[in-house]
Amino acid sequence: MAKKYTFPMGGIHLDKHKTTAACPIIQAPLPAIAVIPIKQHIGAPAKILVSKGDKVKTGTLIADADGIVSADVHSSVSGEVLKIEDVEGASGYVEKMVTIKVEGDVWEPEIDRTPEIVREINLTPEEIIAKIREGGIVGMGGAGYPTPIKTTIPERKKVNLLIINGIECEPFLTADDRLMIEKAEQIIMGARVLNRALGIQNAVIAIDENKPEAIERLTALSKLYVGVNIKVCKTKYPQGGERQLIRAITGKELPSGKLPVDIGCIVQNVGTTFAVYETVLKNKPLFERVVTVSGNGCLHSGNYLVRIGTPISDIIGQSGGLATDVEKIILGGPMMGSAIVNTNAPITKLTSAVLLLKGDEFAKHEPSACIRCGKCALVCPAGLRPFAIKQAVCCNDPSETLRRLHVGDCIECGCCAYTCPAGIPLLDYCKIAKQEIRKK
Amino acid sequence: MMLKISANPHIQTVRNTRSIMLDVVIALMPAAIAALLFFGVNALRVILTSVAACVLFEYLACRYWLKTANTTQNFSAVITGLLLAYNLPSTMPSWMILIGAFMAIIVAKICFGGLGKNIFNPALVGRVFLFISFPVQMTIWPTPHFLHITSPDGQTGATPLNILKNMDTSSDYPMYSPDDLPSYSNMFLGNIGGCIGEISTLALLLGFVYLLWRRVITWHIPVYYLATVFVLTSFLYAATGEIKFLPLAHLLSGGLMLVAIFMATDYTTSPMTIKGQIIFAVGCGVLTVVIRSFSAYPEGVSFAILIMNALVPLIDKLAVQRYYGERKKCPRKSRAY
Lengths: 440, 337
Known about the structure:
The complex is a heterodimer of chains A (440) and B (337).
Chain A: E1 25-27, E2 33-37, E3 47-48, E4 55-56, E5 61-64, E6 73-74, E7 79-88, E8 94-102, H1 125-134, H2 147-151, E9 161-166, H3 175-182, H4 184-198, E10 203-208, H5 212-222, E11 228-233, H6 242-250, E12 265-269, H7 270-281, E13 288-294, E14 302-307, H8 312-318, E15 328-331, E16 338-340, E17 353-357, H9 375-379, H10 386-394, H11 399-404, H12 415-419, H13 426-439
Parallel strand pairs in A: 1-14, 9-10, 9-12, 10-11, 13-17
Antiparallel strand pairs in A: 2-8, 3-5, 4-7, 5-6, 7-8, 13-14, 15-16, 15-17
Chain B: H1 17-39, H2 41-66, H3 76-86, H4 94-109, H5 122-133, E1 141-142, E2 156-157, H6 160-165, H7 184-189, H8 201-213, H9 220-240, H10 247-252, H11 256-263, H12 274-294, H13 301-318
Antiparallel strand pairs in B: 1-2
Helix pairs in contact in B: 1-2, 1-3, 1-8, 2-3, 2-4, 3-4, 3-5, 4-5, 5-13, 8-11, 9-11, 9-12, 12-13
């Protein structure tokens, strides 16, 4: 067996719960009404281009990126714009959203809907980046950082390696796994497109070892493409964290506050890579994504191809409805995802999963006294000491003390809070500490 | 239907304080069995008295003094009781054990704020208090009798450490000769005089393996502690040639194994990072050898641990683990910005 890559510092082993790994991606039915937020990314909200009563097609640009750090938003359905107003989103905050009444499913004519895989790239790097921008692509792993910025290399910086992040280290999630199995060649082409845009020859697709089918498919295909290599990583959380993945693949650690590009790396999620393929080679902007619906409170779990803007309640209905004993709905994985109450909120570009959880298995224990076991420091992949951060926050220590504890390096993976035998919400303290620092 | 909201992570390990403490209790069981085999019912009396007293004191303190939730259910008082008992000879009068338990739970633990806040290892505070208050009863060592349920109390002997201490080859009339030292196999199995829980190295090592397997502790503190003692005594033995520094005898006798595996690794009174734990363990090892070799006492592990316990807050402050992305050796230049 070939060498398995991993990061040496911290990390935990979680129960996998990957029950949907064998479920093929199913097209979710079109919603009756799509609610599309104009800010699904880090940065400025996009400028709305449509107004009430406008007819839109699937793939029509409805909001234009406002500035560099922003992203285009496209209509995911065809129909009539009903209203443009502030609606409560999944987070509970009010956001501006475009509500579209769905009438049929008419796509923009330039979108290539044929199933053939395009294997020719006849575009210059500038043209590719322009197309990525027009496609409204953002990092679909959860950060939502606009992809065109990431693919534009700043002056005097040199990139020599593209890492495609096929690690899905969170329990339950299988959307990326299925995408790699079913769209393996498209992902490889996406990696080649990104390579062309970056002007490099080298791409590594990192997959964790609990995805044998994806590893097999991609390894077989990668032999046909020069410059695309598959590397198998150990199953360990948070292997999919950008910094941990870079450490695993290159052996280099990113100094505090530096970006991957500073040490010559670019990391892109597989979902993003697939979206890049579709938008650059098939002219299809980002308006749908794969969402895993799972959890022990879910009747028909599976992987669905969902139009962005579909209300979460539609997806839950699709998977058998909301059982009365479901206690928590989580968007994303159970480690870093957020619990929601508003099921009318839409699926966005960043929603990787909808989890329905119930029962004692997912109940948290009551916090009790710290027994100073030091396990939080042992599992922290950033090498922090969460116990010290908690102490500093509780004692209202000045932000200088917090900075000395490197709070800014916390990747919010939640390993500390997961591991704490006393059930202390250590991640909450780290987040408070980060805000304290930001205030100054 | 009520949906719950909470901050992430939404899952949590099943290992809580109670389950970890229970694992320590399980890991201590082989030593209890060894104690029963060699010292009979008297050992059982000491263990039960000590555990019952510790649990009772903790319960009463929580109920009537601190007025907090009952913390006896997390088994930490049981561990203190077991460890205190393991550090006593089997002939210890029960009322003295009660005093030891009071010192351990009330003075060393509850007075400092209870679980997780005590600076000194409670069981060792109890033991040292008994040791300096009742030196006679604390140094009567009944001879072990394998499988004699009611061991005759009259017979007493010396511990291997006593023999080592009083084997001064330079004096004309040494109290013991090297031949008095029990064989290594007896020391390993536990057929030697001593406190009830410290005699059998084999039983203690079984507990160590269990703790490692259950990931309750890491190997660092016991291994660094024992290695420091072994290296230092080897050095002294090689330098002076005196049999009282016999390295393997030091490793297998006295409370060293018990203390290195179960008491130096106590979460609350040891440093929290691996780096700090190594400093702590090496310090314990050095102090142990110094006290055993040069003080009036044959045994020094309790004092060594208590002294190092006092340094833990300082070690915690200084022994910072490497941050991700930080270079191994931080040159001064990189601090310029």
